[in-house]
Structure formats: structure tokens, C-alpha cells
Amino acid sequence: MTDQPLLSELNDRSREVFRRVVESYLATGEPVGSLNLTRDMTQKVSPATIRNVMKDLEMLGLLGSPHVSAGRVPTQLGLRLFVDGLMEAGPLSNADRELIDETLGEESGDTGTMLDRVSTALSSLTRSASLVLMPKQEAPLRHIEFVSLGPDRALVVLVFADGRVENRVFTPPIGHTASAMREAANFLNAIAEGRTLSDLRAGIARDISNARQQLDQVAAELVSSGLALWDGGEFDPRLIVRGRANLLANEEADLDRIRTLFDDLERKRDIAEFLELAEHGEGVRIFIGSENTLFSLSGSSVVVSPYMNADRKIVGAVGVIGPTRLNYGRIVPIVDYTAQLVGRVLSGRKG
Fold first, then answer.
1. Do 123 and 63 fall within a single domain?
2. Residues 49 and 23 in one domain
């Protein structure tokens, strides 16, 4: 995702200075000065020499100076170059592996409960916020009901064959009446039983057209607006978020950006986009700052990996979100292992 020839242009000294600045910044969150680097360099060089190298790296757009001080921090481009070309992801520690294994090994027939534990464990291990997108549940419908809550608010109650009940508030058509709601519900119940929401949406336009003479205009609009709501979006309950408080634990946290991120997570908007972040190829993907459109306003980084079912179809994703100063080398193997294990558990595979 970066301009790799840029890395090849750096000589050994420039590459080492750049790597040490990034590693120090990720570990401490503080700007790195030339004097500190002289103590750790492989070859003995003067602070003046290191300052010149850092200026060159700044001209390339890899380092920046947040204050008037001589210290430097990596830019977004610098972090991307480091992650793609210089970062060495460490092996998963035994302690991390055992906690993940234990979390997924607990007996639970409920996928949601299991993935909720996974999200909590990820947040605890990484000390960041965790995101887990559950597989879409497509249980057949058993019953649908509309309930008026006022002139501009209504409730749709969805009862599924597996016993799950979902209540969603939406804006009904102007002029809706109790009789129109009963008519819309009766129409849907006559065609919905035994069908999933996806099945229902696929043929609803045809069904409404065929029944146009039997349905009045308001009832037809109720059916259409209800199905538009059921497409998911901000009402989709499949995104599990844990560990928001960890984002505030960082002393350097930008509170305005954190609030923006909290708002995004609370609304759970564009949930399908989170899965799209992960579904272009297997394995872990890293999005830094404005690279991820889903949380770009908060300037956050996302480490995400998809998991698959037994048919090798991507059905969900697990990830970690936090400031750009994440410990990528440790988080990447944690997310990777968790995604693979979740896929095996959900598919009934062992290994």
C-alpha cells in the first residue's frame, strides 16, 4: 500500500534512524531526538549527523516535528512505510495464545455469546477497542407486526423462527392509520412465513405490484419503508464493540477525535464497510489514519482480519481499533490467530 521504491532509496544509516524513530514513538508516544538515537545506533555517529538524516527523512515526508523541539515523530506515510517494509511481527506469545484458546474453548451453543467473549478478550489483550462482526443470521420469519408510536414514529416487531425478536423504530408514511398498519402486517405475514428477510426483500416489489389492488397506497408504503429499514445500516446489531475506555487511557489521546470515533461506533453506521475492509484477500490488513474511510474523521488505525465458514466464504471479521500509535507488531499476530480460530470453531473444524 506504500511506495516501496521509497524504502529502497534509503541507505543503511537512514533506514536504521527511521526504524528507531518509529519504534521509539510506538513504544513511548514521545517525539524522538537525535541525542537519544546516538546511544542506540549500530555504528557510532554524532548527534549532528543524525539530525541531518532526520531532516532528509522529514523532506521525504516520513517524519514530522509536532512541536518546535528537535524531536521527530513518524507521519502517516512513515507509519505505512514502516508497517509494510520494516516491521517484524513477533510470534504470538504463549500467554496470548492460551487466553484466546480458553475464550473460544468455553462451551456455548450461542454464536453471539461466543463472539462477545472474543471481543472482550481482544480488547483486554491489546488494551485497545475491539470490533467483531458476527455472521449474518438468516433465520426464517415467523411473524411481523407494526405498532404506532405517534404521528411520525412507528415500531416494527420481527419474530423469527429461532425465537429471536427484533424491535426497530422507523418513520412511517404520512397519514398512516391503525387500519393501514394492520393491512400491511397481514399482507407481509401472508407471504413472509418461512422466508428470510433476504428472500422477502428480493421479491417484495413483485409481490406489492401483484397485490396493488388489494393494498392501499399507505399500506404499500409501510411495507416498502419497513423493508428499507431492515436492510441493516445503523440498526444492524451484528457489530460487537468492546473496550472503548481503553481509547481514553492513552495520555496523548486527542479527545475530540476520540469523541468522533465513539459517535461512529455508537451509531454502528456503514457496518457493511467494516467487512469490506477485510474481504479483499485473506489475512490481516492494516489501515492507518485516513486510509480507512469508515473511521477516517477520527484518524484511527484499524487492524482487521476476516474469518470464513466451512465453505471458505467470508462471513465476518475481527479487528482492533485505536490511535495510530498501536503496537502493530504484537497486535497483528493476535488478530490473525483469533480470526483463524473463530473460523475453525464456527466451521466445526479442528486444528
1. no
2. yes
CA atoms within 13 A on the CB side of 27: 7
pLDDT value, residue 351: 42
Can you give the residue range of the structural domain that contains 10?
A: 4-85
215 and 100 part of one domain: no
Q: What is the pLDDT of residue 253?
A: 59
How many whole angstroms separate alpha carbon 95 and alpha carbon 330?
12
What pLDDT sits at residue 211?
63
233 Rama sector, left if φ>0, alpha if ψ -120 to 50, beta otherwise: left
pLDDT, mean of residues 18-30: 90
- Strand (E) positions, 205-343? 239-242, 285-287, 301-308, 314-322
User: In the prediction, which pLDDT does 78 show?
Assistant: 94
Q: Of 214, 235, 256, which marks where a domain is finished?
A: 235
Residue 163 and residue 29 share a domain? no
Query: Within this chain, do residues 80 and 106 fall inside the same structural domain, yes or no?
Result: no
**Strands laid side by side in the 153-160 sheet:** 141-150, 153-160, 165-170
129 and 243 both lie in a single domain: yes
Q: Cα(257)–Cα(254) distance, rounded to whole angstroms?
A: 5
Model confidence band, residue 120 (pLDDT cutoffs 50, 70, 90): very high
Residues 286 and 343 grouped into a single domain: yes
Nearest Cα residue to 146 out of 230, 77, 203: 230
Q: What's the structural domain count of the chain?
A: 3
For residue 99, how many other CB atoms are within 10 A of its CB?
16
Q: What is the pTM of this model?
A: 0.70
**Side chain identity at 311, as an amino acid letter?**
D
Q: Which of 35, 29, 114 is nearest to 70 (CA)?
A: 35
Cβ-contact 66, 85 below 8 angstroms? no
Pair (128, 147) in one structural domain: no
